[in-house]
Every structure is written in C-alpha cells, then in structure tokens.
Amino acid sequence: MKLINFEFLKLRKKSRGWLGPILVFILIMTAFPLTVEILNSNLEQAFFSVLWIATLLVMMLATEDIFLEDYNDGTLEQTAIKYDSLALLVAIKIFVYWSLIGIPISLIGALYAFGITGSIESALQILPVLIITTYIFLNIFSFGNALSLTKGSILGTLITMPLVLPLLVVLGKVVIAINLGISFLGFLFLLLGILSIIILILPMVISFVIKAHLE
Amino acid sequence: MIKKFIHQFASPKTYLFQVDRAYSYIFYISLFIYLGSLFWGLFLTSEDFVQGNSYRIIYLHVPASFISQSLYLAMAFASAIFLIWKVKLSAYLVKSIAPIGAITTFIALISGSIWGIPTWGTWWAWDARIISTLILFIMYLGLISLHDSFTDYEKADKFLAILVIVGSVNIPIIKMSVEWWSTLHQTASITVTEKPAIDSSMLYPLFGSMIGFAGLVCCLVILSSKLQILTREKNKSWVKNYV
Amino acid sequence: MFNFAFDSIGEAFIMQSANGQSHGIYVWSVIFIVFLSLAVTFFVYKRKISSIGKKIK
User: Fold this and answer.
1) Do A and C touch, counting CB pairs below 8 Å (3 needed)?
2) How far apart are CA B138 and CA B144, in angstroms?
3) What distance in Å separates the CA atoms of residue B35 and residue B29, rounded to the nearest whole number?
4) Are B163 and B143 in contact (CB under 8 A)?
5) What is the pTM of this model?
6) What is the rounded distance in angstroms from the CA atom of residue A98 to the CA atom of residue A93?
7) What is the pLDDT of residues B52-110, one digit of tens each?
8) What is the distance between the alpha carbons of residues A120 and B138, in angstroms, rounded to a whole number?
9) B224 touches chain C (CB under 8 A)
10) Residue of B163, B168, B177, B185 to mutate for A, most A C-beta atoms under 10 A
11) Which residues from A are below 8 Å from B131, CB to CB?
C-alpha cells in the first residue's frame, strides 16, 4: 500500500510527466480535423485510425523516463535490494502511470469519439477498448524503455514498436465491429485476455532486464 | 556418452572444427538440390490453370517465408538455452542468425510482392499475413540494432535473448493469420493432417526447393556464426592457431 | 527424356500461358533478385571472415 501511495506521489509531483502526454494527445486529436476539409464526410472513417495512432505515440512518449530517474539516483537499486520482488514494483509503477495518463486519455478519446461520430453508443463502446489498449501499450513500451535504460529510451521503445503492430490490426477490426454493431463483446474479451497475459508476464521480464542493467 | 557428445558442442572451438568439416558437403549438396528442384519446377511442370505461368514464383517465395519463420523459432530456442544454461555459443548463434533472417524475410517480401502484380493486380496489400511478415522483418532489424548499440557484450546478449523470446509471439500470428482473418492470401495447401491441396507434380519440386534453400541458409548461418565467434573470441589462444 | 513445358529458350523467357498473359518478366526478375541477394550475402561474409582473419594474425 505504501508503495502505491509513494509512486502516486512521485508521478503527481512531476507534472510534466503526466500532463505532457495528455496535452500532446489533445493536441493531436484537435489538429486532426483541421487538416481535413471542414465539410468532409470522411472524417468519421479516418478518425478512429488517428485515435489509435495518437494513443500509440502518446504512450510511447509517456514511458520516456519511467525508469530513468529512479535508475539515475539509485532508487531502483535500493528498492531492488529491499523488496523481494522487483516485479511488483514495476507492476505498481506501470499501474500508477496508467491511472494518471491512460485513463484520462481514454476518457478524452471517448469524448472526441462522441464529438465526431455523434453517437453516444459508439463512444461508450470505445471507452473500455481504449482503457485496455492504453494499459497494454504502456506495458509493452515500458519493456522497451527498460531494454535501453542506459542508452536513452528512444531506441528501446522503437525496437518494441513492432510488437504492438498486431494489436493495431485487432483494433482496426474492433472499429469495424463497433460500426456494424456486431460481436463487440468478443473483441473486448480478446483484448482482456491479452491484457491479463501481458500484466502477468511483462513485469517479471522487465524486472529481469532491470536487474541485468544493475549488475 | 550422449551427454558428452552434446556437451562438446558448448565450446566454440569444437563447434568451428565440426562445422568446417561439414561445410562443403552441405553447401554443394544443397546447391545441387536447390538448383535441381528449381529447374524441375520452372521448366518441367505444366502451368497452373488459374494463375498461368507466374505461379512458378512459388518455388522461390514459399521456401523463403518458411525458412524466415523457422529461423526466428531457432533464435527463440537458442535464446532460451542461453538464458537457462548460460551457454555462450547459443548467444553467438542468436546474434549471427539475425542478419540471415532479415535477408530471408526480405527475399520473401520482395518475391511475394512481385508475385502479387500478375495475380492480385497490386504489388502491395495491407492484409494480415503481409503485415505480420513486414513486422517480422522490422523485428529482425530491431534485433540487429539492439545488439549493436551495446558495448558490453554480456548485457547485449541477455537483452537480445529476452527480446527474441518476447517477440516470438509474432510467429503464431503469421502462421494463423490466414485462418483467423479473411485475407487476400490463400490458405495453407500443405498441412500435417490432411492430404495436400496442391498437385503432386508441383509438390515435389516445392519440397526439393525448400530443402535446398534450407541447406543454403544453413551454410550462411555457418559463415555468420564463424564470423561472430572469431570476433568475440579473438583474444583466446586457439583462435591464433586456427586462423 | 524430359517433357519440357516450353518449346524453346525464347518461349521460356516470356512464359506465355494459355490465357495469353506473358508472365516471364515477373518470374525471371524474382529469380534474379533471389540469386543476387544470396550470392552477395555469401561474398560479403567470406570477405568479412578473411579480413578478420588477417587482423588476428
């Protein structure tokens, strides 16, 4: 419990850590209708693709220094020694990042979906999809960040970007399912299944990588 | 005795010695099989009813894509051995297979896209199997760049192994993508459980070219691993005697 | 001895099929690319091995 509060405090204090990604997301989603003609009826079709790409990029941005500061001032080493499982710390960190960055982004994204498509049903359907997707992206990109902890984070996150591309394919199918109104729950459970596997495995992998860095 | 036989392969020196002896045999036999099956497939089989003569690219495209996926699985297997038993030779092999895998995937992508021009009318289509193979190609490039960005070899080996294992989730996606989604790609003609959907006169050159291509890729992996071992072990005494 | 699918070298070059399309250029360009990439890879590796051998000596 103390760990969760501590991590929340750390992220809350560093306002550019959570405010930055949210503002970038709002910027991208607002700039998107400006780049197409104002009376264009294709806005709806392109909107969801821009939504997924913006989520992807913002999650990549958000994990830029998820471990860096702690690694630099030695906190990571101390917690690795003190607590038995570094994996728990990693999982808590990612959970905190998700709750302060991922959930606001999902809400804002659902709001934009309602604004552009005009149907509250599709916005309500895209909200849980966005919530799950941001968590999955955050996990995968923090794995990438941990891989290149000492060399700057961009290399690592770029290298793990190919791992999220199959997820984007699934998300495209989800959008089609929402538009046609069929089998949305099936995709939701698929995403939940992927999330459950990733939540269990990736923190252990990330803690293994961090321990290898600390040697 | 079997344990001793397997254990001797953990040393790079024995590996190089055995591989040097086998190299010319593997190279010439697989070259003969590959060129022979290509000759058979290109000139001696009759044309396809639907696709005309352009189906002959199958003898070049299918072995390349099959081998590129198998190379990734081999890398994942070697990474697992490295992480569990800390055998250094496995790490060398993982590092050396990555460029060969990238080249094979490149061949598969190019041959597939050129094949698409007469059959599908377009040289690129965003369907699931093509996207997944492109992802595999980008992953190979990412693996090469990850290992090159570290100066400390021990850490680089460990991270490479972890990334290979985490990224091996892409292989089932490639293999199953033609069944999970309705794509432009045709479904598998050769499965383990059923009779092949392809005519047997076209099947034998296909198997032959797969075996030949596998042998040639094996020779490339041997060369690449030799380069990697010489680079990494160049301070050892046996290397000076070997060269 | 062999029953060739094409009657002459010229026909094998163009590979015209029964429905009139000539797909020879696609097949031969793929063959060229595959052989070229394999050959280049072999030569590059052989040169790298010999250069590192010289450096070790």
Assistant:
1) no
2) 10
3) 10
4) yes
5) 0.89
6) 9
7) 777 788 889 999 999 999 999 999 999 999 999 888 899 999 999 999 999 999 999 99
8) 38
9) yes
10) B163
11) 165-166, 169
